[in-house]
Amino acid sequence: MVTIRNKRGTTAQVQAYAPSAQVGELVFDTQAGILYACVTAGQLSQLANEIDIPTSITWDNITNKPSTYTPSSHTHAASDITSGLAAVATSNNYNDLSNKPTIPAVPSTLSSFTDDLGSSPVHTHSQYLTGLPSTIDCGELGLT
């Protein structure tokens, strides 16, 4: 059984590698454009002289490639996202938030509140209470 392995390098790298070449290896000299095969251990035999083997291939020159690549489901840690985030996303600081809503100040006393009609909600119902004593003796009610 022969296993084919491919190697490539400059002329100097190919010459340095030749003594350790193993049967079945193809070695391409990227400087000279020469393809070698190892049919006897430690020896490279030139297969072609100045063949036109590109050292790089453009995407357009690749044939039989799929027209679409369906993404697979996966996740990322938050720390993997390094761009496109607002400052607040990583600082957790309210001051870094843009377009913050205006939050009105809350009155500190009840008399400062007003209802939808502008009236103060502080009022009494004493006009509805009639015939009550002005003081109550708790002792008479059994309270201490």
Helix fraction by DSSP (H/I, runs of at least 4): under 10%
Structural class: mainly beta
**Beta content:** 15-25%
Q: Encode the helix/strand succession as letters.
A: EHEEEH
Summarize the main sheet: 4 strands, mixed
- Bulk shape: rod-shaped
Distance between the termini: 108 Å
Mean pLDDT over the full residue set? 78
**Main β-sheet, spatial strand arrangement:** 1-2-3-4
- Tally of helical segments: 2
Q: C-alpha Rg, in Å?
A: 44 Å
How many runs of DSSP E, i.e. beta strands?
Answer: 4
Query: Oligomer, anyone?
Result: single chain
Q: Which residue ranges are poorly predicted, with pLDDT under 50 across at least 5 consecutive positions? A: none
Detailed description of the structure:
This protein is mainly beta and 144 residues long. It has helices spanning 11-17, 87-91; strands at residues 5-9, 25-29, 34-40, 43-48. Helix content is 8%, strand content 16%. It has a 4-stranded mixed beta sheet with strand order 1-2-3-4. The termini are far apart.
Could you give a quick summary of the protein structure above?
Helix content is 8%, strand content 16%. It is mostly beta strands. Strands 1-2-3-4 form a four-stranded mixed sheet.
